[in-house]
Amino acid sequence: MLVRFFAGSIHRQIALLAVAPVALFAILGIISENLTIKEPESVSQARSVAMRIELVVDMIRSAETADQESTILDAVRRTGIRVEEVSAAELDGPEMEVGLDDFRLEIENNLSPGVNAKLRAETESGHLQPVLVVGIDQRRALAFLPPPALPDSRITDREISDFLATMAMFVPVILLSLYGSRMIASPLQRFSQAARDLDPDKGPERPFEERGPPEIRTLAKSLNDMRSRVRGMIEARTRMLRAISHDLRTPLTRLRLRTERSTEPSLRDALLADIDALTLMIEETLVYLRKDTSKETQLRADLPSLINTACHDFADMGYSVAYHGPDRFAYPCRPHALKRAVANLIDNGTKFARHVNVELRVKPDLAISISVTDDGPGIPAEFHADVLEPFYKLDSARNDRGGFGLGLSIVKDIVESHFGTLTLENATPRGLIAEINLPSPDSIHMLANANAG
């Protein structure tokens, strides 16, 4: 649990650390409230009625005239307590038997000790029944018919007030903690998003916003400076490789001309093969360094024709290459770049196999899959990810006859520029399956808009 907590987002950790103590305090308060002995509402109501009865008795004793007494009794009746004046002799009669939980007995028990009171089923001089008779003086008494007891509710007014007080403290703390955690985590989330979208060759010079608290500004400045240094190193490496590749073309051309004038056929053919291999390496390097696949205009191209053209080019050179798939299917793509990707996969297969199959499959949602299968030695599964990296060659697995190891890297870049994926899988019983998966046309538009945003 703790490992998952500390591995979670900073936003969640700060919010939880701020809210947890308050939540614990509220829970403990609720538990302690439930563990304390609660007083039923009927008891508090009985106490309130008893206090009012005593107040009425005191007011009657203080009244100077009969009119004042009549006015007081009328006022009491309007509050819901029926009352009438009776003889003090009613206090000498038998007391009515009631249960221990009777509301009238509860009222009697809450009267002050000096109050002379008795429960009577009825009085001889009055009309109310049953009543609580309370003495005024030696001659007079008051017979009260209290209102019925209110039922005890599950939630008392005190509990409601305690809950509201807790919420008044709890809710602002939650809101402030969430706001504070968001203020702290938001710049880090922006940095994370900027790092995911970062392209060394494109985008603004300083993609990380240098604003906010001093610590955040320092971090953003350091990331921007690091990005500038990385971009400078990549540009320097690219210029160096491009210059070397261009400079090698001239001596290679002179060497080819001199070799073609050689009078020894076997030596001439061997030298020309080496020159062709060097030329292929240079062209492959220049293609990889240009990274101009994204600059080509996207068109609706006929994929079967495009793939068939690549297959026929290799078949004309004497390789066994076959196409399987529909005769016509229009798909939005960069046709020259996609043809180069298919051609690179076919070329990779012809280097190590006797036969290559190219298959185009159209899925129900119009997404497509282009698989290039050969019958060569295949590639061990643990090296599938490595061979997609630039300048990586696995001579021990497949006896490469030349190249810098950029063919599959170029394919990967082209496929990813089409929002697709390139996967490698060993065939059974032998061979390699290189599969290009491209999204449906509708998905391409959504991904392009999301990428532009």
UniProtKB/TrEMBL annotation:
Membrane topology, from the record: Multi-pass membrane protein
Ranges annotated as spanning the membrane: 12-31, 163-180
Reactions it catalyzes: ATP + protein L-histidine = ADP + protein N-phospho-L-histidine
Keyword check for Nucleotide-binding: yes
The Histidine kinase domain, residue ranges: 243-442
EC numbers: 2.7.13.3
Keyword Cell membrane: yes
Keywords: ATP-binding, Cell inner membrane, Cell membrane, Kinase, Membrane, Nucleotide-binding, Phosphoprotein, Transferase, Transmembrane, Transmembrane helix, Two-component regulatory system
Cellular component terms (Gene Ontology): plasma membrane
SMART domains, per the entry: HAMP, HATPase_c, HisKA
InterPro entries: 2C_sensor_his_kinase, HAMP_dom, HATPase_C_sf, HATPase_dom, His_kinase_dom, HisK_dim/P_dom, HisK_dim/P_sf, Sig_transdc_His_kin-like_C
Gene3D superfamilies in alphabetical order: 1.10.287.130, Histidine kinase-like ATPase, C-terminal domain (3.30.565.10)
Molecular function per GO: ATP binding; phosphorelay sensor kinase activity
Signal sequence residues: none
UniProt name for this protein: histidine kinase
